[in-house]
Amino acid sequence: MVKIFTDCSDRTITKIDKLLEVEEGLGRNTIELDLEAEFSNLALDIIGLAVFNYDFGSVSKESPVIKAVYGTLFEAEHRSTFYIPYWKLPLARWVVPRQRKFRYDLKVINDCLDGLIRNAKDTRELRDDLMTMLIAGHETTAAVLTWAIFLLAQNPEKMRKAQAEIDSVIGRGKTTYECVKKLEYIRLIVVESLRLYPQPPLLIRRSLKSDVLPGGYNGDKDGYAIPAGTDIFISVYNLHRSPYFWDRPNDFEPERFLVEKKSEGIEGWAGFDPSRSPGAMYPNEIIADFAFLPFGGGPRKCVGDQFALMESTVALAMLLQNFDVELKGSPESVELVTGATIHTKNGLWCKLRKRHRD
Is 302 annotated as a binding residue? Predict the structure, then answer.
């Protein structure tokens, strides 16, 4: 699987190299690029080859599937926050422009999926599963990489530390699975980025039967009655930035995941202990006693967590192996938009320069 990650990341590296060659011919040594868009293209190519054995080729050419996926995702976000379901009205799909576009985007994606499952069992359930993997499996990873670069660009000393580790482990060579196991700091950067910008920032669960949830820290001692059919929203974003569970919760500190943290009297929380999950390549919800939930937990935890983490590690390592990156504007100019994921409003525009090492 790592080979797919490296092969697709190589496409992105080659594309950036060619753009830099053009600029160098004009006497300039940097390019300005929307890395959020590039990460989205990269992640789509990876999910296509890894899951569908299909090459979207979106790194080298514009893919209509990318636009359709984002259009579908934004419409889902819109519907989840709009109280009146006007899209259910008989003529809405034909009259309302955004609903017409939504129908077109769905057709693009379904046509793509139809081609992938033509020789398989053609059922709605299979198509829905493929739709989930296509959308959730690429857009979330693109977001993780986007915010990892955003955070590193504001912390140049951590950027240099990451590149030093990459130079020591990979050098000028290819990234392999053995390399990933040795890239401890890069893995911690990915995880810390997920803590600060979890994908998704909100988990939604529906109770199948009536229950009583514990009151929790400073909560109702009798607990909270949850009727059957109740939708429960878990704010992962707030959980990951809670001062109850995290020291300096808004600071970017990848090393925090190596240090034990006592509960300090927080009832029902066992504290943070890296030794709880021996052999784990990445910190998880067990280590943090569920104060860290980037992929959820329990039987409905995201099944693609290790795939996404390793994919992000390889892509980030290969980018930093080859280029120095800085933000084009100020951090404040990067506006945040939340929905199914946390993404930027107008892209993550960065300046990239080829790394020259002795």
Answer: yes
